[in-house]
Amino acid sequence: xxxxxxxxxxxxxxxxITAFLTAFLGSSVNVALPSxxxxxxxxxxxIAWISTSYLLAxxxxxxxxGRLSDILGRKKTFVAGLFFYTxxxxxxxxxxxxxxxxxxxxxxxxxxxxxxxxxxxxxxxVFPFGERxxxxxxxxxxxxxxxxxxxxxxxxxxxxxxxxxxFYLNVPFGIFAIxxxxxxxxxxxxxxxxxxxxxxxSIIYSLAxxxxxxxxxxxxxxxxxFAVLLxxxxxxxxxxxxxxxNYPILNLELFSQNPVFSFSNISALIIYSSTLSVSxxxxxxxxYIKGLDPKQAGFILSIQPIVQASLSSFAGKLSxxxxxxxxxxxxxxxxxxxxxxxxxxxxxxxxxxIFISQTILGIGFxxxxxxxxxxxxxxxxxxxxGVASAMGGTMRLVGQTLGLGFTTMFFSxxxxxxxxxxxxxxxxxxxxxHLLIGYALLCFSGIxxxxxxxxxxxxxx
Length: 461
Prior knowledge:
The chain is mainly alpha-helical. It folds into three domains: 187 residues, Growth Hormone, Chain: A; 51 residues, no CATH class; 205 residues, MFS general substrate transporter like domains (Growth Hormone, Chain: A, Up-down Bundle), CATH 1.20.1250. The protein is 81% helix and 0% strand. The protein has 16 helices and no strands. α1 packs antiparallel against α6 and α10 packs antiparallel against α14. The longest helix has 36 residues. It is globular. 54% of the residues are buried. The C terminus is likely disordered.
């Protein structure tokens, strides 16, 4: 069936808006955390939960909502996600204390999980094979623009109008997106309509992922180790249960019989585990070791997402003409090189060296992200689009959690609870160097996973 151009344009436009908003809110809230901490008078652990609650809710519910969207309809799920995201953004403006803000952020995460689980699936549903990479490239570009502009606009809004204005800004755009989808998109996509939803499997999966992510971010504590063990046990239970389920939320044959799907997801897990901590480490390095103020450090850190935003659309189009695994593997190679270059930073490293390394990382990520997503989505039958979209998002979030958890563990072991003072600057720089060379090697290993996954021209399942 030929999809009207008007429908394609509407889907792409809404996808770009929501991709920008979700990325913008995440990066802008991080800038506002000190102001929130000052208003509510809370400690560092509590302030971290304002971001963590959103991440945990989003990651743990992505796959269940992806499967649900295949059954009930991707448009319905997407609109419901927009509604949740918008209403709880609005309510966050009126949060009276940190507990309410953490709860509202978690509920925002519920909305985001519905959006993330369906937006890519809807794009794939309306764009034919040769146009998908280009469309996803625009969506990825919007993500990186949100990440780039979030700290800048968020910092301005926080300083001029207070941190609550960041949440309020999302409301009119969310309402606009809901109206646009409701009025302009008349088609529903539910390729697994009539099948039963696996509630038991969804609960086991969500609890397993939740425990694993909670544990890995605080792995140095005894309770966290227990959470990880329990999470792995539930994950094993989930696999055993899904193998016997009539209508599983995750068809395990997608992994066992579809090398494109399995290795593309492994590649995503590896690259996000390798790269998430870079901005965190560089932010500390630039301010402590190079003596830059937050504004100057923010400018340098914005180089990578700006480069990613400017090239993602081109990389997406390229993956429509050249096999996606080749383009994505080239991107992983560049990311490995960028991380390797950064591992040599020291007290005397010139800023232009960091600028060049950030640029290489940005180019690499642009060439990896949308082509790899293109490979994942093109490798499955349309009845699995929601699940495939959700699994790609889950790999990204779990990878980010693993990277952050490993970095936190390294800091805990070698720095303890000490402040970063001039006395321990040499130790700090050494830790940064070792972490970055480790991440470079990990990212390089992902190239082989990306290359061996095979052709994406034919769906494996």
